[in-house]
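retry 2 of 3: previous attempt timed out while embedding protoporphyrin IX containing FE. Reduced batch size to 1 and resubmitted. Inputs unchanged:
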Amino acid sequence: MTLMEGYPQHADAVRLPEAPIHDDPAAFHNELRRTYGPVVPVLLDADVPAWLVIGYRELHYVTSQPQLFGRDPRRWNMLDRLPGDWPARLFVTWQPNLMYSEGEERQRRGGAVSDALDAIERTELTRICELVADLVTDRFCGDGEADLVAQYAQRIPAEIVTRLFGLPEVDLPDLVQDIHHLLDGGKEAASAYPRVHARMERLVALKRARPGHDVTSRLLAHAARLTDEETVYDLMVLVGASHAGSANWIGNTLRLMLVDDHFSMTLQGGRSSVSEALNEVLWKDTPTMNMPSRFAVRDCEVAGRRIRRGDLVVLGFAAANTDPQVQPAAHPAGSGANRAHMSFSHGEYGCPFPAPELGEIIAKTAVEVLLDRLPDVHLAVPPESLRWRPSLWARTLESLPVLFTPTAPVGKISWH
Ligand code: HEM
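retry 2 succeeded.
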């Protein structure tokens, strides 16, 4: 049985891995819209067929219908035909976690996660973000040069989130390293996974015995009565989801402030336009471009496309955000306040409350601290030589090389 059997509408499908997505995503997506409409037949790696939803209204519809578009990858009608080394397997491998659960189970676990996150004091979170950002900046501020993606943006969120979980300080460096291996999805990912899992198991056992003021203890104490195993799996989801989105948001915002005069990082412009730049990035270079995360529960039709039971529906957040029907014009006054983008997805399976707000505190503080510590930071290369990572899923730069006047570290930092 070939991969394309059962996919008659994919005869002229778009081979996404070969498509010119990264240099000008808006132009690419508008070309797709003209040729295929708001729901596009695509081929992913190894010519695996799927549907890419690029229309704003259609994406809103799909994410608002959990009874029609499920989250459990075991529904996928291609799962047993996937090549063993399929690159995006991590996204479609079922695990007993919050992310792949549906219905009542989803409400139970999603409710516990939202309550545990919502108890985080925002001022305390900002304080921890400032300390971590200073700690990370200290590592390169004396060098006069740095790669703000590898040495800053990718360093920050995991260091913050693992502290919110109540992990012992001594565990942090190795865990943060393993989280990077996991999210990189490279050859280290497979060996890093069991190490992160084991560390979360130890954390849950520690907090079961000695609860503290942290996310893990609140999950364990929640009325949802999560088991230790459920808590371990959901902490893994939280670490991965919070790091990937927030790190790319920091990196893409620093890029915008370094290349776009409207946001130029001059001392007078910097601070006042960080929120506007963060929002502009969510519209124009959203950290999560696409997500292979919905599976049709039964045969249905969206924008004239017949979607069969078990078909994979890829959520095209970046494309929906640049849909001409909703795209806000560039920089009109107050555009920073237009938050109707789809960058946190939508509906029951979307980025759970209050994660978007916490993600914004992490990203905003990281950008502001960097601006304060290195006021004359500027690009070390011409803007047009910056390269986006060739990922179908995440929007992030390969690197962001900068120069600045070397400064002294702020020294020993106390967490308590
Ligand atoms: C503290 C920060 C964050 C936390 C704790 C967090 C947590 C989560 C969790 C638990 C999920 C899984 C929901 C599910 O599939 O059931 C999720 C999904 C998602 N998150 Fe976040 N997140 C954070 C920051 C961000 C940021 C900064 C972005 C992007 C700007 C983002 C975008 C998304 C998207 C697009 C999804 C996919 C939802 C879907 O499949 O519909 N998240 N997040």
